[in-house]
Specification:
Blueprint: E1 4-5, H1 6-12, H2 19-27, E2 31-33, E3 36-37, E4 43-44, E5 49-54, E6 57-63, E7 79-86
Antiparallel strand pairs: 1-4, 2-3, 2-5, 5-6, 6-7
Helix pairs in contact: 1-2
């Protein structure tokens, strides 16, 4: 398999635990692929960079491999973390 829907990749890789949550993150503009805001149906393939904003945390990963099923303990092999930042919330 050379490419996969973004929401499914986020679930299979366990970056986001549930596909509906991944779809909501995409719809909310919190997910970017290769620097561009991405919808859940966008195809991702090895080499793509995905940036996700989780509240005060930003996670950027590079897709290494796309597989439709993977054991939980091996999910981290599908990507590598490029950047992870935490910002202090003002309040």
């Amino acid at each position: 398999m050379s490419d996969m829907r973004l929401d499914k990749f986020l679930k299979v890789s366990r970056i986001i635990k549930r596909r509906t949550v991944a779809k909501d993150a995409c719809a909310g503009g919190r997910v970017r692929v290769n620097g561009t805001s991405a919808k859940a149906g966008r195809q991702v393939s090895p080499g793509d960079r995905i940036e996700i904003t989780f509240g005060n945390r930003i996670l950027e990963v590079e897709v290494l491999e796309v597989r439709s099923h993977v054991a939980a303990r091996r999910a981290g092999e599908l990507y590598r973390v490029v950047r992870e930042e935490f910002s202090e919330q003002q309040g």
